[in-house]
Amino acid sequence: MIALNSFRENGDAARDLTPALVRASATLRDGETLVFPEGEWELRPDFARCELLAITNHDYHHRLTALHLAEKDGVTLEGSGCILRASGPVSPLWFEGCRGLTLRNLTLDRKESLNLWGTVIEADEERVMVDLDPARNPPWGAWAGDLFVNIPRWRGRVEVLFEWDAHGRGPVPGSADNLGGWGQHWVYEQTEHNQLMIRGRRNHTPAPGNILMMRTHTRPAPALALSGCDEVVVDAVTMHAAGGMGLIAQRCRDVRVSRCRTAPGPQGSGVYTDLFDATHFANCAGTITLEECSFTGQLDDGTNIHGAYFPVVHREDGHTLLVERRHPQQAGAPVGGPGDQFALCNGETLEDNWTGACAEISDLNPFIARVRFHESLPDSVRVGDALDNLTWQPDAIVRKNIFRHNRARGILLSSRGVMRVEGNTFAVPGAAIHSGGELGFWCESGPVRDLVITRNHFDHCATEPSWGEGVIPELSTQILIIRCTHSLACRRDSPCCQYSIK
Predict the structure, then answer these.
(1) What is the 3-state secondary structure (H, E, C) of 8-57?
(2) Which DSSP state fits 207?
(3) DSSP codes of every residue in 363-416
(4) Exposure check for the chain: N or C terminus, fewer CB within 10 A?
(5) pLDDT tens-place string over residues 303-313
């Protein structure tokens, strides 16, 4: 075992662990255990490592990281109950190409939020007045009608508003994103002291005493990032806040997440968890296991396990296509590698109409990739069709978890693998379990092949139609096997008890 404190030097700031983690990244060897010090520590940006690191569903840019481990085998990180509070755009933990990785007994938080929240003082059809507690909000300012968050080494513009229940029970029904009207424009004006006036017509008027969430839409710094890792165990990790996802994994194989949780932290509002998805898995393989976790109050879904469609933008020759990563927050994410099997999907129906093995993949830039196949492409391929990587389609086990009081949905499952959803509790405003693919925005791929849903408890789900019009809304038309039973009647009409499709 190696104590992280052994990497601290006399010139390090008293409570800043960033320099020690950067030194440990450079010297830690295969099979070693790094033991974190007990207590509360900061991760400041001034001495963080800076690299161009691409991770899906986050902004594409050079990143500041504290611990960045690459190509290590059998490493264990023993958190010892340590609390790490990242500052500015620092990502605490980043792993690439690691195998047999274990992370346990750690809490990840932020010193400053990337979002704002205020208590609603008064509201009518055209304006909302909120009070922002300076002790629980980052520095902010209103200029030329826009609202900005200003923290060390980072600045973000507020883009989304929604009302949150003051007692921590999640978004208020009818609020959705931008108070019932996505794309609304708001005019912000700072008034006396810490009060903010927000003008603009809306479909939903928040109630005095409730919380108004004012969210930036950028994702600069996930708490825990995994890229190209195999056989990963994340155990007993708590996540209070992040500059993006809590845990994000891309092109990883066999990841087990157990006894982890998201929960409101002492640095924040106390009623919501200041991060996007609690966990997110894109283009993975093997088995993704989530077991005995509790995901509460996050600002997006509990988990999302999916592949990705890569739309065709050009056919170069009989064996080669150019495809795009359509959403800007997918820039640089891996499309695949030599030997991977791909399906060519119809751009309108998303049905598979050809499969082939990849001979070579190269990036023209972070958005466009060239994919060359061993086999000849069909004459029918056209711009607007899409590739789906069949090799990276994981099985999933989601068992004995709690998903509650968060924005949006419980779990999103869009994989061709075998998926089991067993003994979970859902109390979410949108769909509890959602599946499906699309080519319009995130391009997350379906179809679902084998999904069994058993012994789950659904408690007042689907109260906000914009995040799902049923507890288990209509799933992909390509489902082969679905069965569902649960112990509590759904609040809304849902076909979730009627699935017996083959």
Answers:
(1) CCCCCCCCECHHHHHHHHHHCCCCCEEECCCCEEEECCCCCEEEEECCCC
(2) P
(3) ESSSSEEEEEESSPPPTT--BTBEEEESSS--EEEEES-EEES-SS-SEEEE-S
(4) C
(5) 999 999 999 99
